[in-house]
Amino acid sequence: DTAVSQTPKYLVTQMGNDKSIKCEQNLGHDTMYWYKQDSKKFLKIMFSYNNKELIINETVPNRFSPKSPDKAHLNLHINSLELGDSAVYFCASSQRVGALYEQYFGPGTRLTVT
Amino acid sequence: LAKTTQPISMDSYEGQEVNITCSHNNIATNDYITWYQQFPSQGPRFIIQGYKTKVTNEVASLFIPADRKSSTLSLPRVSLSDTAVYYCLVGAVGTNAGKSTFGDGTTLTVKP
């Protein structure tokens, strides 16, 4: 059983389109995250939810909108995609909020905007 | 929030011991130090965590000096499969600690 799963694994789309990435964790964790990793391997946190409540909202364009329907799911919707949005997006979860708790990462979604 | 600094890249050969140092000068009293490993085309995974002195597990050792302003991840006798990016993360618990960001990562290349 995959602990943290993401769909799709690859996403190729054109500028201006709207797309969504889905994430699910079966670990019973309270906290979930979205990270963006660019081509230089920099891993930047975008959002974090704890018990379905948004607790971290870093400086991210408002074209990005996370949604957590329940503790086990955290989806990311992106409107009006731009070339600069091309990256690998990782979902992660941890038992509680904070770096003290081990984060479990999904396999990533490689988004390519053309 | 503690900012971390790591070398961008390191090269090593199979069988050698590799030490990767992370600087975190403004680490807070409650902060822990955690290291993650990321293989190509995979998400990062937890390797080791510590607060002070030395921690060892089956994968690595973590050395933290008394002032805790730096930490060193030690990989004994590396193999080709240890080629990966290694991230240092400093933080504790609570909402603000959840903002702890990963360092820029150290790309370790192990050569035969």
Keywords, please?
heterodimer, A: 114 residues, mainly beta, four-stranded antiparallel β-sheet, B: 112 residues, 9 strands
Would you give an account of this structure?
The complex is a heterodimer of chains A (114) and B (112). Chain A is mostly beta strands and 114 residues long. Chain A has strands at 4-7, 10-13, 19-25, 31-37, 43-50, 53-57, 64-70, 73-78, 87-94, 104-105, 109-113. In chain A, strands 2, 4, 5, 6, 9, 10 and 11 form a seven-stranded mixed sheet that branches. The model of chain A has no long low-confidence stretch (mean pLDDT 93). Chain B is mostly beta strands. In chain B, 0% of the residues lie in helices and 46% in strands. In chain B, a hairpin with a 6-residue loop joins strand 3 and strand 4 (45-50). The model of chain B has no long low-confidence stretch (mean pLDDT 90). The chains are: A mainly beta (114), B mainly beta (112).
Alpha-carbon distance between the two ends of chain B = 39 Å
Oligomer: heterodimer
Shape of chain A: globular
Biggest sheet statistics of chain A:
7 strands, mixed
User: Which pair of protein chains has the largest interface, and what are the residue counts?
Assistant: A-B, 29 and 30 residues
> Helical content of chain A, roughly?
under 10%
Secondary structure: number of strands of chain B: 9
Secondary-structure element string of chain B: EEEEEEEEE
Q: Any idea what the radius of gyration of chain A is? A: 13 Å
* Overall body shape of chain B: globular
Low-pLDDT runs of 5+ residues of chain A are none
Mean pLDDT of chain A: 93
What's the main sheet of chain B like?
5 strands, mixed
Mean pLDDT of chain B: 90
What radius of gyration of chain B results from the CA coordinates?
A: 13 Å
> Unreliable segments of chain B (pLDDT under 50, ≥5 consecutive)?
none
Count of DSSP helices of chain B? 0
Q: How many E-type strands of chain A?
A: 11
- Helix-strand makeup class of chain B: mainly beta
Derived from helix and strand composition plus strand pairing, the structural class of chain A reads mainly beta
Give the termini distance of chain A in whole angstroms. Answer: 34 Å
